[in-house]
Amino acid sequence: KDSGRLIPDTNGKATSNNVAELFTAVKALEAVGKGWEGTLWTDSKVTMHRLTGSERFNGVPQWLRLRALEARRARKFKVKLLAGHPTRKELLAGKKERNGLPVSEFNVMCDEKCTSIAKACIQFFS
To answer: Strand 78-81 vs strand 39-42: parallel, antiparallel, or unpaired?
Structure first.
C-alpha cells in the first residue's frame, strides 16, 4: 500500500481506474506534505470530488478512503479538472475543443506510460 504500486486484491477482484487515480492523487498529496498550498490537476471528476468534499467512496478500499480523508483534512490545496486524451491539435491549442478544459502533455505522457505498464502486466500474468 505504500510502495506506489497497486496490487489487485488476492480474491481476484480487479482494481478500478477510479481507485487507481485516487491512489495516485493521494500519494502525490502525501509526498508534498500537510498544509501544501498549490493545485492538484486530475482528469478524473470522481477523484476531484473525493478530494474536495464528496462522501462517496463506493468501491474504494477502506485503507485508501482513510488516506484520502486525511489528505483533505488540512486541505489548503485546490483540485482542478484537466481534459484527458487530447489530440495533437488540442495540445497545441492548450485546451480540449469539446469542453474548453485545459490539456497537458504530461497527462498524455502518464497515460502512455500507464498503458505500457498495463500491457506488460497482462503479458506477465497471462
So the answer is: parallel
> Model confidence over 90-99: pLDDT tens digits?
888 888 888 8
Of 102, 80, 75, residue with least CA distance to 90: 102
pTM of the model: 0.75
Q: CA 87 to CA 96: how far, in whole Å?
A: 8
Q: At a CB cut-off of 8 Å and minimum separation 6, what does 78 contact?
A: 38, 39, 40
CA atoms within 13 A on the CB side of 95: 5
pLDDT digits (tens, 9 = 90+) for 57-76: 998 999 999 999 999 887 78
For 95, phi then psi, to 5°, come to: -155, 160
